[in-house]
Fold this protein.
Amino acid sequence: MKRIYSPVLIAGLLLAGILLLTSHDSPAAAGPKRLSSFDPQVKQLLAQMTLDEKIGQMTQPDQEFLLKAPEDIQKYFVGSVLSGGNSDPKEGNSLEAWTNLYDRLQTEAMKTRLGIPILYGVDAVHGHNNVLGAVIFPHNINLGCTRDPALVEKIARITAREVRATGVQWTFAPCVTVPQDIRWGRTYEGFSEDPRIVATLGEAAVRGLQGLDLSSPLSILACAKHYVGDGGTSPRAAGPEGVAPAGPGASARLRLDQGDTRLDEATLRRIHLPGYIAAIRAGVGSIMPSYSSWNGVKCSASKRLLTEILKQELGFEGFLISDYNAIDQIKPGDYKGSIEISINAGMDMAMVPSNYRNYVRYLKELVEEGKVPMSRIDDAVTRILRVKFAMGLMDKNRSQLADRKLHQSFGSAEHRAVAREAVRKSLVLLKNDRQTLPLSKQAARIHVAGASADDLGNQCGGWTIQWQGQSGNVTPGGTTILAAIKAAAAPATKVSYSRDGTGAEGASVGIVVIGERPYAEGVGDRADLSLAKEDVEAVNNVKKAGIPVVVILVSGRPMILSGVLPQADAFLAAFLPGTEGAGVADVLFGSDKPSGKLSFSWPRSNDQLPLNLNGPKDKYNPLFPAGYGLSY
Ligand code: GLC
């Protein structure tokens, strides 16, 4: 007998199937566990906490200032500690010293009445870049040129593992900024000027850092930053507070960093919000508001941005961590008033490296005076504790100290191989006349020149061992571009080097590696993106030798090439490749073809700036458009 199913039954089954697939808890939609699913445990703990203990969870000093009063970590019930860009263990910068520092502070923190472990945060923005011997991956500007989310996730996973090797469980990354003006010193911390690339790669980075299970001992807490519009500020003349910009543009003072982003809300959302929507989708547990302002209001003071849009509209369930002393900038000279505004706007934890005692004192007074409601304190602490439960920090059966077995893979050849792959895939070939590249491995002699040919620090850029980074042999285990060329060339090939490019006569080919010296944040703000005189001279000296000239640019952004591009037969943009210079040689000698595509528009001259895809189309006339890149 033919069974006839009623249309109602069929529709009901279909609806049930759809609901199952789209419901958050169904295995089919398996993603990170929602942070609010930990609220029952959070509420139970919160109910036991004193006001002092709650405020302690909202306080993040820097370890270097706790040295003067180690008892403060217990006295103030501190819930988190950071190491800023230059804040290394007092015993020195080694894997062992970092691990001992973490264990010592965590042990102290867990002696408090409730024994709530600390979250230890660092800026692991391209590997565990504070620590000597860590693999330094290419910066985000390079990763943007790969357009490869799987690679970005793999890099983030390795970074998480190397960070965990020191016990540290939190990185202030990924930076999902969308730089609109490459004169900004933080351009290289961005994946791209294109918000779609930023969203895709930012989501991949969060997935890699946090994994699908934030409680994994190989996962670390990610922090999407700097919310919001940090890369869209308007240039302003650098006043007396202005930092003298690095490089030849020093005379032309200009400030972009920590400026004011003047956009209507629709444009702000279109260009600068996608990275945060993607990061929240990936389950990001923390977000860092920007030093910068939106239409004159500090992001760290904006209830519209922090609470209404991020927490209420977008449903962000984690916590907000302020930038380094960013709260102080809200009402200069009135620290207590600044704290009141920021916490009431929705800030949950304050990065208060040295001034943490005053922060704790003022916040307690504000609560007692009724100026900061206890409900706001409870919301902030709930958000912080959600993350700690999700990470397994509250699991009494689990050690919260470092897993030193991870030291074996720290800086390993296996990790470096992934970084080398990222270097290869991030290089952008801008010019290759007469098939100058790839180089023959049988060339009789290769002459290498330029200030960045044999300089690991220049290859790595800022946020490397030191906050600002520095030129020179900054960390063990890396390979400079010169060393990589020597290793890749045939044994019979002679590889000579001169910084200024002289002595190239008679070589088969000349390779000139030029570009920027390391910088970070506002120190890198520059009005003039011309190349240093020394770099132009090195290219000219090799050109005078009458041999093919390959120019490699190591820089945190596109630069003005009018002085060197005509002399170059081939031109490779390497941006900031990090420690694994061998990836450059892989492409130079053709064992791998260049596949990178520009993630930023390349200007012809300074006066075109700012120049990007989001600007007026009739003014868009770059030397090389975003998306450009040749291959063999
Ligand atoms: C810095 C940066 C931020 C970093 C923080 C901690 O000033 O703005 O990106 O995470 O301080 O080092």
Remarks:
- Residues 374-390 form the longest helix (17 residues).
- The radius of gyration is 26 Å.
